[in-house]
Amino acid sequence: MVAVKAETESTKKKELVHSPILTYFSVITLLSTCPPFVILLWYTMVHQDGSILNTFNYLKEHGIEGFVNLWPKPTAVAWKIIACYALFEAALLLWLPGKTVEGPISPTGNKPVYKANGVLAYAVTLVTYISLWWFGIFNPTVVYDHLGEIYSALIFGSLIFCVFLYIKGHLAPSSTDSGSSGNIIFDFYWGMELYPRIGKNFDIKVFTNCRFGMMSWAVLAVTYCIKQYKTNGKVADSMLVNTVLMLVYITKFFWWEAGYWNTMDIAHDRAGFYICWGCLVWVPSIYTSPGMYLVNHPANLGTQLAIAILIAGILTNGKSLVWGKAPSKIVASYTTTKGETKTSLLLTSGWWGFSRHFHYVPEIMAAFFWTVPALFDNFLPYFYFVFLTILLFDRAKRDDDRCRSKYGKYWKTYCTKVPYRIVPGIY
Ligand code: NDP
């Protein structure tokens, strides 16, 4: 145990992790390329057999006009599907019962209060969706058949939503955990408010990240299965392995949802394009893409291989225990913007003694295992796996920088004891 006095704080507004030029470049690149990328990915998966080369040749032949023509217009059906889903999830968030839980103390000393009803909302959503199909009230294949239009509507609708967040952040912030960086692009991209709410109980980030984004992942995974079943009369073992592994991951997420409210996404990243547009558009499209690909590519793995991949994938979702021993830790204090001194415990045993973000490794491996049923004919189904690896390596650096500025010499001590960020000996 180490007990030295903290000298720094990390409660200021968003600080730049990289140089200003690199930050500007990456922010503007992401703002301009993510929306068309979502459409190109969908188009390649659904209309070009997952082949990047086919899409490249199409674009080479037809140029910008070809690209405009392949971009589906947001139709009334798409808006209706999104509206029904969003209203349903909002109602569940507000009205399903749940234990009251407190989030971590914020940089300005606020403690957000939530209703933990995620597991119930998840169960109600899946049971309702499957029942609507089973009883012939709604056919999920409609969702797959209008997927491009749905993504198109989500892209534009979510951009407008981020403008709303920007204006709300300026005019009517929900708490003192809000503020401008003085730069309109960063305010739009990173967001202004840490805990934006509508009224007292409707937490916008819980809605966008958990109940819209993560929930849509499960709903779309089931949709892809049903679409394949309707088209081929059966569900291939590759699709089953992919869907089961994704659902295990998402079920675990909702089981742990109140824990998620303590992570960087909720407790540190503000509500803007990065987090909210990401969860409203990037999660339903990119995260679900291995399943999207499998709909038209029902590879047969054979029982042995299917079971082997399934077991390997489930094992990567293992629990992070402190290995049966009393945990060793650093007692670290830090100062909030209000000048109050608070204390946190920095774990130095178990996985957190192995490397500072070792838990990113099983996350990346799980993504690999639910993609591998797509086999190796095309690279594109592996895009999410590659993207996640880059995202988590960057995140480990961002978190490190934030913790260094928050905990000062305590973090230095932790880094001396546990020198690697993710993979011991490598990074
Ligand atoms: P963590 O849950 O590890 O949260 C990081 C925070 O934990 C730090 O900011 C710090 O917060 C605290 N902390 C850091 N080191 C220690 C320590 N040694 N002991 C105690 N507390 C510590 O990380 P993430 O929020 O990045 O990830 C949460 C999960 O979500 C992971 O499993 C990750 O794989 C997953 N994830 C998935 C993504 C996806 O797109 N699929 C994207 C991002 C994450 P404090 O200031 O409060 O002390």
Explain what you see:
The protein has helices at residues 20-47, 52-70, 76-95, 118-134, 141-145, 147-171, 184-190, 204-232, 237-255, 257-260, 264-267, 273-287, 289-295, 303-315, 351-354, 360-371, 383-407, 409-417; strands spanning 99-102, 113-116, 197-198, 202-203, 329-335, 341-347. By secondary structure, it is mainly alpha-helical. The protein is globular and about 60 Å long. The model is unreliable at 1-13 (pLDDT under 50). The chain binds NADPH dihydro-nicotinamide-adenine-dinucleotide phosphate.
Tag the structure with descriptive keywords.
mainly alpha, 6% strand, 427 residues, two-stranded antiparallel sheet, disordered N terminus
Outline the fold blueprint.
Layout: H1 20-47, H2 52-70, H3 76-95, E1 99-102, E2 113-116, H4 118-134, H5 141-145, H6 147-171, H7 184-190, E3 197-198, E4 202-203, H8 204-232, H9 237-255, H10 257-260, H11 264-267, H12 273-287, H13 289-295, H14 303-315, E5 329-335, E6 341-347, H15 351-354, H16 360-371, H17 383-407, H18 409-417
Antiparallel strand pairs: 1-2, 3-4, 5-6
Helix pairs in contact: 1-2, 1-6, 1-12, 1-13, 3-4, 3-6, 4-8, 6-12, 8-9, 8-12, 8-13, 9-13, 9-14, 9-16, 14-16, 16-17, 17-18
How would a textbook summarize the main sheet?
A: 2 strands, antiparallel
Percent helix range:
55-70%
> What gross morphology would you assign?
globular
| Oligomeric grouping of the chains | single chain
Our estimate of the beta-strand percent is: 5-15%
Low-confidence stretches: 1-13
Order of the strands making up the biggest sheet:
1-2
Order of helices and strands: HHHEEHHHHEEHHHHHHHEEHHHH
Ions and ligands: NADPH dihydro-nicotinamide-adenine-dinucleotide phosphate
Backbone CA Rg? 22 Å
Q: What is the terminal separation in angstroms?
A: 25 Å
